[in-house]
């Protein structure tokens, strides 16, 4: 049995939905950490690196499968999520490294800045989740 392009698109969309939901729900409790311990920033950094890898692969697969299914708008939407994920990884991880170094140096301004960045990432992930949920209506 071979999967039709439409079914592959649905499969990869559901995978992207699962990855995004799992990491979104997993990142919210991390806000309770005080972030005054270098281990906190390292853990959150590795958490997001894992998310970005999985989300990028799932979004690219969804984009390609939407293209084969003849749904160019959804293909571009999934491609946009992949691009945003890649850009967020570059920007967010670099900033996390910077703030992590400041936290290790006991610079108190780094903790609120790290938390603000973390909240921004959660908001962006929530927006991506809504976009993914919206695409499910096309099936």
Furnish the topology, listing elements before pairings.
Elements: H1 5-27, H2 38-68, H3 72-104, H4 110-135
SS-based structural class?
mainly alpha
| Separate helix tally | 4
Helix content: over 70%
Task: Return the CATH architecture.
Answer: Up-down Bundle
Q: Biggest sheet, open or closed, and with what strands and sense?
A: none
Assigned CATH class: Mainly Alpha
Run of helices and strands: HHHH
Number of strands: 0
State the end-to-end distance.
Answer: 20 Å
Characterise the protein shown here.
The chain is mostly helical and 139 residues long. The protein has a single domain (5-133), classed as Four Helix Bundle (Hemerythrin (Met), subunit A) (Up-down Bundle), CATH 1.20.120. The chain is 81% helix and 0% strand. The protein has four helices and no strands. Helix 1 packs antiparallel against helix 4 (110-135), helix 2 (38-68) runs antiparallel to helix 3 and helix 3 packs antiparallel against helix 4 (110-135). The longest helix has 33 residues, at 72-104. The radius of gyration is 17 Å and the shape is elongated.
Summarize the structure.
This protein has helices spanning 5-27, 38-68, 72-104, 110-135. It has 139 residues and is mainly α.
Task: Provide keyphrases for this structure.
139 residues; Four Helix Bundle (Hemerythrin (Met), subunit A); elongated; mainly alpha; 4 helices; single chain
């Amino acid at each position: 049995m071979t999967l039709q392009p439409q079914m592959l698109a649905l499969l990869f969309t559901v995978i992207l939905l699962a990855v995004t939901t799992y990491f979104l729900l997993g990142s919210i409790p991390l806000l309770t950490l005080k972030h005054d311990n270098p281990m906190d920033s390292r853990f959150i950094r590795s958490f997001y690196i894992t998310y970005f890898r999985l989300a990028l692969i799932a979004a690219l697969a969804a984009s390609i499968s939407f293209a084969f299914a003849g749904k160019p708008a959804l293909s571009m939407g999934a491609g946009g999520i992949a691009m945003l994920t890649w850009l967020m990884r570059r920007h967010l991880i670099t900033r996390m490294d910077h703030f992590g170094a400041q936290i290790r140096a006991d610079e108190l301004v780094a903790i609120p800045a790290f938390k603000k960045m973390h909240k921004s990432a959660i908001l962006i992930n929530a927006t991506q989740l809504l976009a993914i949920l919206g695409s499910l209506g096309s099936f």
